[in-house]
Specification:
single chain, mainly alpha, Rna Polymerase Sigma Factor, Chain: A, Arc Repressor Mutant, subunit A, about 0% strand
């Protein structure tokens, strides 16, 4: 009786590659395929009366199909259990979005610093005085000792340069 069992095990182990491919084609998470192949073999080893199995390959893939259905049902149960309306889950997603937004903002600020350093000193000063200190064109002109028209020109050049460079840095 031990010899037919060894032959049975040898026959089912010969289909490992085909079984792996079977799961790969049917699973979203390809990393689960190896675990499911292992589970199929464990279930096949638990079969007591291997002599009653007429076609071990067909039986192997029937077990695999049933395991696939069980896995899908368990996945649906897990998805249903993690209800997105749950306040805790919604809070976690909000925190992740806030973190991503803050990280993105920090990257943009750093990019903007690099781009502003490329401007001439007076052009950069005009941008900072306009957008950080909210000074008027006349106030900026007085500080930089240029005309208000020149301030407008500096700001136009700076905005054009920033738009171009920021678009390239994305």
């Amino acid at each position: 009786m031990a010899e037919p069992r060894k032959a049975f095990i040898g026959r089912i182990l010969a289909h490992r590659g085909a079984l792996q491919a079977f799961f790969h084609r049917r699973l979203r998470a390809k990393s689960d395929a190896a675990d499911l192949v292992q589970e199929v073999y464990l279930r096949m080893l638990r079969v007591r009366d291997t002599d009653s199995i007429l076609d071990p390959e067909a039986y192997l893939f029937a077990v695999a199909g049933n395991l696939l259905k069980e896995n899908a049902a368990a996945g649906r149960r897990r998805a249903h259990a993690a209800d997105l309306e749950d306040a805790d889950v919604a809070q976690l997603f909000a925190e992740v979005r806030e973190f991503d937004t803050a990280l993105d903002a920090a990257r943009r600020v750093e990019r903007l610093r690099v781009v502003l350093e490329e401007l001439s000193p007076k052009c950069c000063a005009a941008v900072i005085l306009q957008y950080r200190h909210e000074l008027s064109y006349q106030e900026i002109a007085d500080r930089l000792e240029v005309s208000p028209g020149m301030v407008k020109k500096y700001l136009t050049q700076a905005l054009s340069h920033c738009r171009r460079r920021m678009a390239r840095l994305r």
